[in-house]
Amino acid sequence: MSSLNEGLIQSWIDPKGPVALVLKQQLMPVEGEDAVFFPPTYADIGYNIDTLADGTKVATIDSVGAQANRIEPLFGTDPELAKLVPQVTIDLGDGKSVSLLEAGHRLGDAIVRSSDLKDGAKTAFNEFLSTGDATALAKLGPTSLVFGAWDSRDTQAKLPRLVQSVIRAWNVDVLTRSAQYVPAIDYAKLAVFSEEEKEKSEGNAKSPLAQRGFVAVPATGAHGGIVARGPIVRDVTINLIALRRLHAKTDADKLRRYVLGLALVAATEPLDGFLRQGCLLVPRAQQPGAWEQVTRTGERTAIPLTSAAARELAAAWAAEYGVGESRTAKFGRELAKADLVDKDAAKAKGKAKKAG
User: Fold this and answer.
1) Mind listing the pLDDT tens digit for each residue in 245-279?
2) Number of CB atoms found within 10 A of residue 263's CB
3) What is the reported pTM?
4) Which of 59, 197, 239, 336 is the most buried (most CB within 10 A)?
């Protein structure tokens, strides 16, 4: 195993250095082997389960986007990590606010275009588009460089993800579950409604009485979780090629080290395994996984990368580069309305062009 020395770390920024740092981490339900746990459900499809050519079923347990949205807020809630990035808050009025770290599309989010962050974000995106200079992005919202962002509603600038994490379960069996709801009392006997209405509504989940919980209703064939016969794997990648493509008119290496520090912290932070009700995962103690660096030739070398080391490096590089200024921006209702008008106008223009 290589030691985490200055030469190794510098190679991660060197154009001829490794292409990525990767972690393959084995997980298991907190209840133990062969326990039932619950993947996320999606509109129209339920669980996202793919069947491979050999019949093996693979389930998505936490998507790339979901993992990013779990990790990013740590840069606001963890006191140590909060010092590494500017704390940008959008004031909604009436004592309500939202952190930029909680905006799903980051600097490309509608909340940014609907606030007085709009012009600054647009300028930063345009600088990145025209020259590749990521300085303004790093000073305003550096986590957009770490987790990626797409300003799809305005400049079309795309920031690739430096940190990608996803959890999949292999060779799964899918279960269903059923239940029977029984009301606490017989409301028909209390003349709340008639026996005839009760008979018509019982067993019909769409009836108003059933929807309000006044009659017995069975629920059958609902999602009952899965059992993983194969491994549950969390794959984490730090894309060093994408990191090296970040440019700056001055202090490019300092910028890259700063962003790398944030990426290392995000990637090494211990997993919060409570993904949803019925899905609490922990690392498999016998197979905790180890970080490796991967070269252009595919050679893999284990590296002693830990959360503590990542935090130490990130703090030093943030101090060296200079963290952007924290600020509170104002939400603008008129800006939001104008953004909707711009969207409708663009849509109409596109239809007219297509018709012509």
Assistant:
1) 999 999 999 999 999 999 999 999 998 899 999 99
2) 27
3) 0.89
4) 59
Q: Residue 297 is encoded by which pair of tokens?
A: 């030739």
Q: What is the DSSP string of 236-247?
A: EEEEHHHHHT-B
Helix, coil or strand: residue 155: coil
Going from the C-alpha of 31 to that of each of 37, 273, 279, 281, 318, the distances in angstroms are 9, 12, 10, 9, 40
Q: Which of 27, 61, 36, 32 is nearest to 278 (CA)?
A: 36
Neighbours of 124 (CB within 10 A): 25
Query: What DSSP string runs through 13-49?
Result: TSTTS-SEEEEEEEEEETT-TT--B---EETTTEE-E
- So where are the chain's domains? 63-167+233-344, 172-225
Tokens of 291: 């970080």
pLDDT in tens, 169-203: 999 999 999 999 999 999 999 999 999 999 999 99
Q: In which element (H, E) is residue 66 found?
A: helix 64-71
Integer Cα distance of 121 and 327 in angstroms? 13
- What whole-number distance in Å separates Cα of residue 139 and Cα of residue 157? 17
The Cα 116–Cα 329 span in angstroms is 6
Q: Which residue has the tokens 């180890």?
A: 290
